[in-house]
């Protein structure tokens, strides 16, 4: 019998403000991100939305947003090289609408911007496993 692959599970938030998507700039030059992160140790019994809210607060502060309580997109990714080579992550993507508040970035990120949903081109900007996910999200949203 073959053992199943091991995946980390991460929750990401596609945060929308009018017709724009929040894009975070990572501490690594050229790395773009969207808010969220992996389920932490000891969080197995916590609701997924609560884990997502914790991750989002850690990354962008106490911004207020309305949240779709069900994921709208799923994807998986494997690190192709570097210190995390072979790391596999299964992502659940949620959608939220920005309501108010000042974005306060964690040390993981150096900047942010609101990308226009109609003109944003993920293949030209993302250098990691989010390319297909963001394209799928944009297709869903358009």
Q: What does it look like?
A:
Helix content is 20%, strand content 37%. It is built from 3 helices and 8 strands. Strands 1, 2, 3, 4, 5, 6, 7 and 8 form an 8-stranded mixed beta sheet that branches. Strand 2 and strand 3 form a beta hairpin.
Q: What's the CATH class label?
A: Alpha Beta
Look at the structure and name the CATH superfamily. Answer: Nucleoside Triphosphate Pyrophosphohydrolase
Q: Total number of helical segments? A: 3
Question: Ranges with pLDDT <50 over ≥5 residues?
Answer: none
* CATH architectural arrangement: Alpha-Beta Complex
Give the helices and strands, then pairings.
Layout: E1 8-17, E2 20-26, E3 32-33, E4 36-38, H1 48-60, E5 64-67, E6 73-78, E7 88-100, E8 109-116, H2 122-125, H3 131-141
Sum this structure up briefly.
This protein has 142 residues and is an alpha+beta fold. It has helices at 48-60, 122-125, 131-141, and strands at 8-17, 20-26, 32-33, 36-38, 64-67, 73-78, 88-100, 109-116.
Which key features would you list for this structure?
8-stranded mixed β-sheet, 142 residues, 3 helices, alpha+beta, Nucleoside Triphosphate Pyrophosphohydrolase
């Amino acid at each position: 019998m073959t053992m199943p692959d091991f995946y980390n599970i991460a929750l990401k938030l596609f945060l929308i403000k009018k017709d724009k998507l929040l894009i975070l700039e990572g501490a690594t030059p050229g790395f773009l991100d969207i808010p969220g992160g992996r389920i932490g140790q000891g969080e197995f019994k916590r609701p997924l939305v609560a884990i997502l809210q914790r991750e989002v607060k850690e990354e962008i502060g106490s911004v207020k947003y309305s949240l779709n309580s069900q994921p709208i997109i799923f994807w998986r990714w494997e690190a192709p090289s570097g210190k995390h080579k072979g790391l596999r992550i299964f992502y659940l993507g949620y959608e939220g609408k920005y309501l108010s508040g000042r974005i306060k970035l964690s040390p993981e990120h150096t900047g942010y911007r609101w990308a226009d949903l109609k003109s944003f081109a993920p293949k030209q900007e993302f250098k990691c496993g989010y390319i297909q996910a963001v394209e799928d999200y944009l297709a869903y949203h358009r």
